[in-house]
Amino acid sequence: MNLRVFGAHRDDALGVPELTFETIVQLQDALDAIQSGTLKSNGIYPVSYTVSERVQLLAEPKWLQKWKPTYPELNVSKKSD
What we know:
The chain is of the alpha+beta class. The chain is built from one helix and four strands; from the N terminus they run E-E-H-E-E. Strand 3 and strand 4 form a beta hairpin. The chain is globular, with a radius of gyration of 14 Å.
């Protein structure tokens, strides 16, 4: 799939950070692993999770994370394997 994804924050490269569809897949996998407790974090507050070589996700510590959707009607079902 040829999809251009522009990141919200720039890394150390010049210009707008451009990622790929693979980054979106890696993010979904990382979120699933964070929720299940299999992806470990670094730091105290905020904690940092490695999504890919270029992407770090800053988040609340495990004990402050809320996985229940605020708007359940917008909840997307889990991807099928």
